[in-house]
Amino acid sequence: MRVIGMMSGTSYDAVDAAAAELTLTGDTLALRPLGLVSAGYPPALRAALAAALPPAATTLHEVCRLDTGVGRAFAEVAVRADRELCGGRADLVVSHGQTVYHWVEGGRVHGTLQLGAPAWIAEATGRTVVSDLRTRDVAAGGQGAPLVSLVDVLWLSGRPGRPVALNLGGIANVTVAAGPAGPAGPVAFDTGPGNALVDAAVRLVTDGARDIDEDGALGARGRVDPALLRRLLAEPYYAAPAPKTTGKELFHAEYLRAALTAHGAPVAAADLVATVTRLTAETVAGAVRGLGGTEVVASGGGVRNPTLTAMLRAALGRIPLRVSDELGLPAAAKEAYAFAVLGFLTVLGLPGTLPGCTGARGARVLGSLTPGAGGLRLPEPAAAAPVRLDVLPPPWP
């Protein structure tokens, strides 16, 4: 099948659509990347998203408007992906949507909300859409995240040692194919902020004029404030046991302002950005060491920040840091490819979760289906789930 996987991360900067040719043969799933298209949200929609996200208050009227606006934005990118990457012959679209809230209390996830009504995608493309991928895992007692852990385990389990997959999005998450004490099963969790507090710091010190630390330039000019870093590292989330998940409900601009107020002493703009960049590096490296990781394979927007990757390499010490491109999955598209795989498994009637990674009572088939123009025609259910993922070369030199 030719499957388009779509998502917009917690930085809500763009909609990504990655197309893949997926084939299940026996216990092996083969993925051939077909490319990525991406488009930023329209400025008014992005501003509306920013204004509605926690800790801000919002209204049901605004939630409805955002659900439609995000759905239309996803639909436009899906049409492009089908035309430009699949020659108009895509079989399925898988939409993660835009996460706007992850309801966590007492270490347990009670609900999760992703906006972007899939009917807009189905109507625009004529393709069946798999969406709402997280809720079933939450209903089964899981964290609903990191959902990419199944794909990470299938992809990396054949490598020597204990490889750790790392996604550096707004929130950072890790997956290891075996437990830290040996072959106790896969483990996955959110380590804490990836780019979330770096972005918040940049917006704070530029009065909203900039959203990101382009090329890590501001952080590179700063010096880490040791006292502020110690205060930030005291966050209880880091010491909580896995499985666990978090989001911008915790790590947002007001969280950073509160830490600065408690710190008391003034912090220069570049020093603040350097400090929260180091926070991400230290918390990720600490998680990797706790898992007994022997290598890190990184993806996500954070790999484009050379200051963050340099700090992470230093914090990891002798543990090598690789970018997922080296193993065939482009870092900018890896999560979108992962959601393509999860939707593919859904239409084959196969589970898309690993209970040891999300904490659910058992593996579950994920998502909801929105029929395309030709009605709902699903393939025959697969006899058995894959145990490995092979990434094939793309169909171009």
Keywords:
397 residues; alpha/beta; 5-stranded mixed β-sheet; 13 helices
Description:
This protein has 397 residues and is α/β, with parallel strands linked by helices. The chain has helices at 43-52, 60-86, 118-125, 135-139, 149-156, 196-205, 217-221, 226-233, 253-263, 269-290, 306-316, 334-347, 355-358, and strands at 2-8, 14-25, 28-40, 92-105, 108-115, 129-131, 163-168, 171-176, 187-193, 295-299, 321-323, 368-370, 388-391. The strands form two sheets. Strands 1, 2, 3, 4, 5, 6, 12 and 13 form an eight-stranded mixed β-sheet that branches. A five-stranded mixed β-sheet has the order 9-8-7-10-11. Helix 8 crosses helix 10.
In short:
With 397 residues, the chain is an alpha/beta fold.
Helical stretch tally: 13
Our Rg estimate from Cα atoms comes to 20 Å
* Quaternary assembly: single chain
Poorly predicted runs are none
**Helix share, percent:** 25-40%
Which series of helices and strands comes N to C?
EEEHHEEHEHHEEEHHHHHEHEHHEE
Count of β-strands: 13
State the distance separating the first and last CA atoms.
22 Å
Categorize the overall geometry: globular
Main sheet makeup: 8 strands, mixed
Task: Annotate the secondary structure layout.
Elements: E1 2-8, E2 14-25, E3 28-40, H1 43-52, H2 60-86, E4 92-105, E5 108-115, H3 118-125, E6 129-131, H4 135-139, H5 149-156, E7 163-168, E8 171-176, E9 187-193, H6 196-205, H7 217-221, H8 226-233, H9 253-263, H10 269-290, E10 295-299, H11 306-316, E11 321-323, H12 334-347, H13 355-358, E12 368-370, E13 388-391
Parallel strand pairs: 1-4, 3-13, 4-6, 7-10, 10-11
Antiparallel strand pairs: 1-2, 2-3, 4-5, 6-12, 7-8, 8-9
